[in-house]
Design a protein that fits this description.
This protein is an alpha/beta fold and 139 residues long. It has 2 domains: 53 residues, Signal recognition particle alu RNA binding heterodimer, srp9/1 (2-Layer Sandwich), CATH 3.30.720; 50 residues, Signal recognition particle alu RNA binding heterodimer, srp9/1. The mean pLDDT is 91.
Length: 139
């Protein structure tokens, strides 16, 4: 599958009923990090502009789509510190996901813990400031 999207090719299928779209500083660097940390696969990306920014990246992560772009302040999309949300991955082997994310360069926020709602849960922050939760259902 080609990873470059152009006007002559239809976009790849979007997976999931709710898709997050993150604006980051370095969308392609984030895509590479998410590949290492969370097993993300690049579904497609627009070529970078003359300033090296990428306006659209489509990833498959854990059975869902995740969209990324660089910030474009001149078009009303300035870079802002991620806050007020958590990207949550529903996983089967939380410790394996946790370890892979840390080895890729994520920062530990909450180690794997049995939570009051009965699941096992952990959090990391990626190098782009995004908070990621990992939730494993009760065994």
């Amino acid at each position: 599958m080609s990873t470059t999207i152009d006007a002559q090719h239809a976009p790849v299928p979007v997976k999931g009923g709710l898709v997050a779209y993150l604006a980051l500083d370095g969308a392609m660097k984030a895509a590479a990090f998410y590949g290492q940390a969370f097993g993300a696969e690049l579904a497609g990306a627009m070529p970078p502009d003359e300033q090296g920014r990428t306006m659209h990246v489509h990833l498959y992560v854990n059975g869902s789509s995740l969209m990324l772009s660089d910030a474009y302040p001149e078009h009303g999309h300035p870079l802002q510190t991620p806050q007020g949300y958590t990207m949550t991955l529903m996983v089967e082997d939380l410790e394996a996901w946790w370890t892979r994310a840390l080895e890729a360069g994520a920062t530990a926020v909450l180690p794997p813990t049995d939570m009051f709602w009965g699941d096992r849960y952990a959090q990391v922050r990626d190098p782009f400031g995004v908070l990621w939760g990992m939730n494993q259902g009760a065994r």
